[in-house]
Design goal:
Membrane-bound Lytic Murein Transglycosylase D, Chain A, Elongation Factor Tu (Ef-tu), domain 3, 3 domains, six-stranded antiparallel beta barrel, elongated, disordered N terminus
């Protein structure tokens, strides 16, 4: 029991260097008991360590094993009986000592919700097409607008691969054509992400699925594309300072945006824009004043979709957007 005291701190490190090769060792693997030593006049733990271990620096091992009797390592007295552990005894305890527990990694939490990123609309250079479309309700052929947890039919064009049970599709819809405000330049078409459908049954000419999630109105004839979940974003980043763009459109073509509205900006991958970046919106009065901040959700080569993080005034298409400080 005494020897268990000195597997702490520096002692455990020391023992690894002295446990092998000393005169006390009786062979590998053997654990030999130590001995008791009676302190003589003029003795110190330093000198006793030198005598038994051949190195005075191991004196903390002797002190640790006698800590109840020797409260101050600098004061030992003639006639005191102290225990000097054998190196093999110490080494055995070090080997058996529990390894320090690894600190559990702190789980990172995304700064953008998965749903916010998934259902953010985006601008595509071309109108979206897909061989898969949403049909009618499984139980009511006249129903064409669907809510969450409703059973729906799925159809596909000839030659398309059959969907698989358990596969998830994003329900999408082509929106309006988008131009840069004040110009004739066409950026593309707004693509709306509306909901998620999970395939439950598959036949040769149709499939049955359940509407798992609805973000916006889902209806018959909407396109279905295989669901791709974007990687999570764990931190906000400043946007590139030297890049300038404008708000080109608000989602659903609103005239002015309020907090948490989605906006499209004509800055994209080509300008180094990434999800999680913060962009600044500047006053339309011609002064260098930040009046709003946007957080990038999705990025295409020439555009990005943002949500309005904070604003001192309603934001409108045509307002200047730049990177910069958070």
């Amino acid at each position: 029991m005494r020897a268990k005291r000195y597997v702490k701190g520096v002692v455990a490190i020391m023992v690894l260097s002295f446990a092998v090769g000393l005169g006390w060792a009786k062979g590998p693997g053997k654990v030999v008991k130590g001995t008791y030593y009676v302190v003589k006049k003029g003795d110190t733990l330093w000198a006793i360590s030198q005598s038994f271990y051949g190195n005075p620096l191991y004196w903390p091992i002797i002190w640790e094993s006698n800590a109840e009797e020797v409260t101050n390592p600098h004061w030992i007295y003639p006639g005191e009986k102290i225990y000097v552990p054998h190196p093999s005894e110490v080494a055995a305890l070090v080997r058996k000592a529990p390894k320090p527990k690894r600190k559990e990694a702190v789980e990172k939490k995304p700064v953008l919700s998965k749903e916010m990123v998934l259902f953010a609309a985006y601008i595509s250079p071309k109108r979206l097409s897909s061989p898969y479309t949403l049909g009618t309700s499984v139980y009511d052929a006249d129903k064409t607008i669907f809510n969450q947890l409703e059973e729906v039919s799925l159809f596909w064009k000839s030659g398309a691969a059959l969907p698989k049970v358990g596969e998830r599709f994003m329900v999408v819809r082509n929106g309006d054509r988008v131009k840069v405000p004040g110009t004739k330049k066409v950026l593309g078409w707004e693509i709306q992400n509306l909901g998620i459908v999970k395939v439950e049954k598959v036949a040769q000419d149709r499939a049955q699925g359940m509407v798992e999630t609805v973000a916006f109105s889902v209806r018959k004839g909407d396109l279905l594309v295989p669901l791709k979940v974007p990687p999570p974003v764990y931190s906000f980043l400043p946007g590139p300072k030297d890049k300038k763009g404008v708000i080109v459109r608000l989602q659903e073509n609103k005239d002015a945006g309020g907090l948490m509205d989605f906006l499209f900006v004509n800055l994209g991958e080509k300008e180094g824009i990434k999800p999680g970046m913060v962009l600044n919106v500047y006053s339309p009065e011609g002064i260098d004043l930040v009046v709003g901040k946007l957080v990038v959700l999705r990025v295409t080569p020439e555009t990005c979709t943002c949500y309005l993080w904070t604003s001192a005034m309603p934001l409108e298409p045509g307002m200047e957007v730049r990177g910069g400080a958070l």
